[in-house]
Write a structure and sequence with these properties.
The complex is a heterodimer of chains A (346) and B (344). Chain A is mainly alpha-helical and 346 residues long. Chain A is 77% helix and 0% strand. In chain A, helix 4 runs antiparallel to helix 5 and helix 4 packs across helix 10. At the A-B interface, helix 6 and helix 13 of A face helix 7, helix 8 and helix 14 of B.
């Protein structure tokens, strides 16, 4: 009897160790890949600069030509891609895990549309400054979440109802965006099309600080509460009996992830499907049982940077990153829908 | 002789308050038409309205405005009727209370095909749009319904809506991808995409007529069989209905109607959802009556929305697609909130 128990404990310990190793391995590979893509973002373009020049520019040296191209054009683009990708990946993962449904991500239930609508309103109607746009997009996202949650609570809560209500709300918000785009000036349209599908074009250093600051400040909080998310995954009662304040955890996680998603949306527009794809891919690579927040964020970074590179260089015309992620993500989304329907989870 | 007509009446089983609903709706329709002719950024008085309608010799500015609004009004009535019937057909084919071309992503499919037509085939006339839009609508409908009806339980509202939303997202990425390198297409498409009946002219009305007639005839003829279908496939088969064929024909009618309307007016959402639900609430579930009444209510709702859009957006106009989204989406949310969870 005793023997058996030790064996089970041993095997549990061993498999846990194995999982931890796998987690570390996957995370470092993802980190390396992200880093390589960052370098590619800085080096590639109409003129290809060698690593030496790029490092020189980053260290503040004056390199002829490279200072402008790399420092003013490519660096902000890269930073916007990294932080927006990370934010979408993390935020999407949190939502999917919390609502225990891969389809319940900020894109599908309309949170990004809420942020977009608020941001477009500020740009086209109020001609507001960047700070105002950022704040408005956060408020837009939060209000959308509150409304969806409030409406779907009713007599009994169900994820299905929440998703349907989100889709309804999204239709209204999309109507607002189309209307704003129609009354907008012709010159605003290229900016506004960014709100149809995300883009890293026109990222400028001075507009990035809200996104960067929020992601840097909130990621530790999300990680801390994310640990409890694992327990939430076990189910409400189990989590409570493990001493997790489920309501508080949920509230903190919703607010923080909406914050980073909304700011990312305000900076780059809604980059399609990144929030949706990152979580499931991370789960597949790492396996269940470990908090996949960081891997999901890194996968977000990789998706955005790689798609942006494809969009910039693979075709004659430059496509914004959102179009590429939309098209790349489509087959996976369809596959996921088919699988979920087969399993009958909905 | 007398006997026969009595039994026939019994079979027809006219809903209790059919007349009580029909008469006010017809009155409402009349009011709508008058409002659509008279209201806009320039208000027209009675005298000028009558001049414009019945005295072709009067050439005042107001009279000409009224004459231009006639086209718009006829066009919006037709589009509304088409979308209303399309909604009724799709809801009964999918046996799903929230089936509507816009929710199922069928509109976006039509959009994609139209954009490709503008971009690659240099198409600019309405009768060419129509076939492309119908083809796009049909392929999307098949695709979405295929995915949504997989697995146990068949096509539940939630599965269908998610499949529709996902497909819609993918298709709009493609639309943007086609559009971005071509700024001229972007400008043409930007206005089409919102959905407006303002662009209608006699040509588009004439192009529209055959589609409208065929679609509505299909709807009327499949009505009784669709009633049987509502009882479940087994019962319907027992009653001698070929369920597969009927579904196919009815779906074809729905796609024809909404594809043609979308091609000419742009994607206008929620009309099918709204009109059918209102009618079902008023006269009950008999499709033989729901179908023609949905045409009526669809025409009313679209025309009212158009008038509202003109009044709110004055001196310009608020495109009708935006107005219907604002009226329709809350209704979708209400239906969802009221529905039992098991039904989702």
């Amino acid at each position: 009897m005793m023997m058996n128990e030790t064996i089970t404990i041993n095997s549990i310990m061993r498999s846990r160790l194995k999982r931890r190793r796998r987690f570390i391995l996957v995370t470092s590979v993802l980190a390396l890949l992200s880093f390589a893509l960052c370098c590619a973002m800085l080096m590639l373009g109409n003129t290809i600069y060698p690593v030496r020049d790029v490092i020189g520019v980053l260290l503040g040296e004056q390199v002829k030509g490279a200072t402008f191209t790399v420092g003013t054009l490519r660096l902000p683009r890269m930073i916007a891609g990294v932080f927006a990708g990370f934010a979408f990946g993390v935020g999407g993962y949190i939502f999917q895990t919390m609502l225990r449904n891969p389809l319940a991500n900020p894109n599908v239930i309309g949170i990004t549309t809420g942020s977009s609508a608020a941001a477009v309103f500020c740009i086209i109607v109020l001609h507001a400054s960047n700070t105002v746009v950022s704040i408005a997009s956060v408020i837009g996202g939060l209000v959308t979440v509150l409304v969806i949650y409030g409406l779907s609570k009713g007599s009994s809560f169900s994820i299905g109802r929440l998703i349907l209500i989100g889709i309804g709300l999204q239709a209204m918000l999309n109507a607002v965006i189309s209307y704003l785009m129609l009354i907008g000036k012709e010159s605003d349209i290229p900016t506004a099309i960014r709100w149809l599908s995300g883009s890293l074009n026109g990222a400028k250093m001075e507009t990035l600080s809200p996104l960067v600051l929020t992601v840097v400040l909130l990621t530790p909080i999300i990680l801390y509460f994310g640990k409890r998310l694992e327990m939430l995954e076990l189910g409400e009662q189990a989590a409570t009996s493990l001493g997790v304040d489920t309501n508080k955890t949920r509230l903190v996680l919703i607010i923080t992830s909406v914050l980073i998603i909304a700011l990312a949306t305000a900076t780059t527009g809604p980059i399609a499907f990144v929030a949706f794809l990152a979580g499931p891919i991370a789960k597949k690579l790492v396996g269940v049982g470990f908090s996949n927040i960081i891997p999901a964020g890194l996968i977000g970074v990789i998706l955005v940077l790689a798609s942006d590179l494809i969009g910039q260089f693979a075709f004659e015309t430059r496509y914004p990153v959102g179009v590429i992620t939309g098209i790349l993500g489509a087959p996976y989304l369809i596959y996921l829908l088919i699988r979920i329907n087969r399993k009958g989870d909905l | 002789m007398n006997n026969v007509s009595v039994t026939e009446k019994k079979q027809l089983n006219i809903p209790r308050n059919f007349i009580r609903v029909l008469v006010p709706l017809l009155l409402l329709l009349g009011v709508c038409i008058l409002a659509s002719l008279a209201f806009g950024s320039r208000m027209i008085g009675w005298g000028e309205l009558l001049d414009g309608l019945f005295h072709p010799e009067v050439q005042s500015h107001e009279a000409n405005v009224v004459r231009q609004r006639i086209v718009r009004t006829v066009f919006s009535l037709m589009c509304g009727a088409a979308l209303g019937v399309a909604g009724a057909l799709m809801q009964s084919v999918t046996r799903n209370p929230i089936a509507d071309p816009s929710i199922l992503g069928v509109n976006t499919g039509a959009s994609l095909f139209v954009v490709c037509g503008i971009a690659f085939l240099n198409i600019s006339s309405a009768d060419q749009y129509i076939w492309l839009a119908i083809a796009g609508a049909m392929l999307t409908a098949i695709f979405v319904f295929g995915i949504g009806s997989m697995g146990s339980g068949g096509a539940t509202p939630l599965k269908l809506v998610l499949a529709g939303a996902a497909t819609s997202a993918i298709l709009s990425s493609l639309v943007v991808a086609v559009m971005i390198p071509r700024s001229n297409v972007m400008d043409q498409f930007r206005f089409w995409q919102v959905g407006s009946v303002g662009a209608g002219n006699w040509d588009s009305i004439i192009t529209f007529v055959p589609f409208l007639v065929v679609g509505i005839l299909i709807a009327i003829f499949t009505g009784p069989a669709l009633n049987a279908l509502a009882l479940g496939d087994e019962v319907a088969t027992g009653l001698g209905v070929k369920t597969g064929t009927i579904r196919l024909v009815a779906a074809l009618g729905g796609v024809l109607l909404c594809g043609a309307a979308t091609a000419l007016a742009g994607p206008i959402g929620f009309i099918g959802l709204l009109s059918t639900h209102v009618i079902r609430l008023l006269i009950g579930p008999d499709l033989r009556y729901i179908i023609p009444m949905s045409a009526l209510s669809g025409a009313i709702i679209l025309t009212v929305s158009d008038v509202l859009g003109r009044l709110i957006g004055s001196p310009g106009e608020l495109e009708v697609g935006i107005v219907t989204a604002f009226v329709g989406a809350p209704i979708l949310i209400l239906i969802t909130m009221k529905a039992k969870i098991r039904a989702l």
